[in-house]
Every structure is written in C-alpha cells, then in structure tokens.
Automatic annotation (TrEMBL):
Residues 88-147 form the Tyrosine specific protein phosphatases domain. One of its GO terms (cellular component) is cytoplasm. GO terms for biological process: negative regulation of MAPK cascade. This is Protein-tyrosine phosphatase-like protein. GO terms for molecular function: protein serine/threonine phosphatase activity; protein tyrosine/serine/threonine phosphatase activity. Residues 26-168 form the Tyrosine-protein phosphatase domain.
Length: 168
C-alpha cells in the first residue's frame, strides 16, 4: 500500500475532518483515481480529461452513451434504483472493473443518474472491501466527499449483509 493510500486509510478509519468536502458537482473525487458522479459528468469531456478519467462505470436502468470522442473505456451495469433491486449480484462485476482499472494506473468515474444511490453504493462497497472497513465508516467517508450520496434503504440493508458475509 502506498503512503498516500495509507494516509487515506487512516483518514477513513479516524474520520479525519481535515480533508475538504467538495460541494455538489457532477462528480467528486473520493480517492485519488476514483470519482463518484452523475450522468452529466460523462457528457462533459473537459471535466473527464482534466480529472484524468480513463474508465467510466455506468450504473443505470438503460444504456447511456458517451457523446464525445475521448479515450475513455466505458462499462455499464444495468440496475434499477429501487429498494427491492438486488444490488449484491452486481457488486463483483463492479469491484472487478474498478480494481482492474485502478490496478493498471487508471482513474475511474462511477456514476448513475444522480450520483446519489446506485453509484454511491458501489463506491461504498469498494471502500468497504479495499480498506476492510464497516458500511458506516465507508458511507461517512463518501458523504464527506459527496454530500448528496445516499443509498436507498434496500441498498443500505444489502451493503450491511455484504459486510457481514465478508465482502463476497
């Protein structure tokens, strides 16, 4: 683990409030190389390029297409944002995509329609697994960076189940 990652890990565990909270934007940096955002973020090539985004993971009910020509890999997981949608079936594919991209030095934007529930749930799950922290710790960390983040109650319940099962 790099020094930077260790510092972020300590901040996550201790709930360090010295790290700035970004105001609501179409995308917010959660970790170096990991952003959380809404559907507007992928429509803005300047924001993607200036943030160094190399990979986009879209979590939507229907396909979304990037309208511009940028060298960004794009993967989609089709999932509804309802309390009875089974999120856990999608987590392995999402974790694999994020881990593979970041492991190869890429920068990932995870987004859904509003950057609030589906994408926040996946980013929270990534933090839980990567740093071996609780749902509450990961959610608190994400909320400090993207205040509008708020998984729906069904996703919250499932992420707590995922935590109890050991992130599988």
């Amino acid at each position: 683990m790099s020094i930077e990652t260790q510092q972020l890990h300590r901040a996550l565990i201790t709930k360090d409030r010295s790290l700035p909270c970004a105001r609501y934007r179409s995308m917010n940096e959660i970790l170096p190389n990991l952003y959380l955002g809404d559907c507007k973020a992928i429509l803005d090539p300047i924001t993607l390029l200036s943030s160094g985004v190399t990979h986009v993971l879209s979590l939507r009910q229907s396909p979304v297409y990037m309208r511009h020509q940028v060298n960004v890999k794009h993967s989609q997981i089709f999932i509804d944002d309802t309390e009875d949608t089974w999120l856990l079936d999608s987590l392995n594919a999402a974790m694999d995509y994020i881990e593979r991209a970041m492991g190869n030095g890429g920068t990932v934007l995870v987004h859904c329609q509003e950057g609030r529930s589906r994408s926040a749930s996946v980013v929270i799950a990534f933090l839980m697994k990567h740093f071996q922290v609780s749902f509450e710790e990961a959610w608190g960390y994400v909320r400090r960076r993207r205040p509008v983040a708020g998984p729906n109650p069904g996703f919250v319940d499932q992420l707590k189940i995922w935590e109890r099962r050991g992130y599988w």
